[in-house]
Amino acid sequence: ISRALMPREWCLDDFELVRPLGKGQFGRVYSMRERRTGFVVAMKVLLKSELLNANMEHQLRREIDIQSNLKHKHILRLDTFFHDESRVYLVLEYAPQGELYKQLQKARTFPEWRASKYIYELATALAYLHRKHVIHRDIKPENLLLGCNGEIKISDFGWSVHAPSSRRNTMCGTLDYIPPEMVEGQWHSSHVDLWSLGILCYEFLVGHPPFESKTVETEADNDRESTFRRIAKVELTIPDHLSDDAKDLIRKLLQRNPDQRLALERVMLHPFITRHNGIGSSKNRS
Length: 286
Ligand SMILES: CC(=O)NC[C@@H]1CCN(c2c(Cl)cnc3[nH]c(-c4cn(C)nc4C)nc23)C1
What we know:
Elements: E1 15-23, E2 28-34, E3 40-47, H1 48-53, H2 57-68, E4 78-83, E5 87-92, H3 100-107, H4 112-131, E6 134-135, E7 144-146, E8 152-154, E9 161-162, H5 180-183, H6 191-206, H7 221-233, H8 244-253, H9 264-268, H10 271-277
Antiparallel strand pairs: 1-2, 2-3, 3-5, 4-5, 6-9, 7-8
Helix pairs in contact: 4-6, 4-10, 6-8
The protein binds ligand FH3.
Ligand FH3 binds next to strand 1 and strand 3.
């Protein structure tokens, strides 16, 4: 595909609509077929007017700059983009098995082997991102898609930045995944993604995130404070039915102090991961 999408001016007529896929945070997504090659892509269509009055054009530029330079099997590719007088079009990799959060809603919780596989795949993608000094900052089920073999694809880099960073935009959407240092508007490092990995692991196994909160828009001010306090105080209760390995990994990621969170290299070697993914065992040692 990269040959076919060699840098040249693309336009909407190069593609034909297959079907609407859903909505991202800003704009609609469609599966489209590139007419010459028959290649199916996901096309995210954003209205310039919406971007401008939400002051999001710089965030979109950053999303494009970051995601188009990333090449990793667990990160959704951004192949190219183009615009016309009213819209911006992002040509993204199509993930055939769709949105992970829908499968989590259907299954309610994942068995430990499945959660462990996803956490391992995410850890490899985050290690790649952090080596490039990119923080995603918005790792949550809604931003995870599934490839043709059910493998994780991190998408939606709308909130990613180059580390270290301090947040300039007001956060909207759920607070569930925001670590204490971001909740307090402090400077934050790539360790924010470690916190989100811990929240995800908990939600995969328990069926809801540990510091349940409504989205920030609907929070009345006093509730909002209570949500922040709960996240900041890190009141964590882990259900007993989880394995000791699962509890151990979650506790080591949901550390209030960002520097005490388990490093990604150690996440990949944690028993909760190696027990299910046959990593480091003799079986797959070449
Ligand atoms: C992370 C994110 O932006 N999510 C919202 C957008 C909705 C569809 N988007 C897709 C994007 Cl950006 C890429 N690939 C997708 N594949 C699907 C999908 C496949 N099936 C069978 N069902 C669906 C749905 N959707 C996408 C992303």
